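Form 7-S
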Amino acid sequence: MRAAFISDEKLRESLKEVLSELGMSARDFSKVSALPQSTLYKIMSGHREPNITTLRQIVKTIKDIEGGETGFIAVIAARPVLDEIKEKRMKIGDRLLVLREYSATNIEEAIVAAVRAERDGAAALVCAPIVSPTVEKLLSIPVATIIPRDSLVRAIEVAARKIE
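Output:
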């Protein structure tokens, strides 16, 4: 929310961008933040400047949603795999969890990303099977392994066509 210190226009752009990244409408954000929906719409449309209390509540809510208190699930994978993730939030049972992406192109980068994710406050981590045994030994958070069943079959089919 550094944008608030630059200009009201930058704040509006940043707030819209953050809500989009979180997959939330102003109405959804209003419910979570306890800010009136009309206040958010006025701020985002430029008809109102937020006071310091409102700005603090916006920042606190964004931090909470992004896993500030409940943690987030870190996903470590190559950029093409991460680009396939459409939702940055997932509702599991009654909990809303945030996914945070960490790109890695080799085993060393994946290990470094895992340590960084834990330091960033990740509650759990998802990564490839080639690195998960090592990462599990290093971290104190749960680690889940990606098992690419469908994509594996598709890759075998592509390879078979290439050798025809």
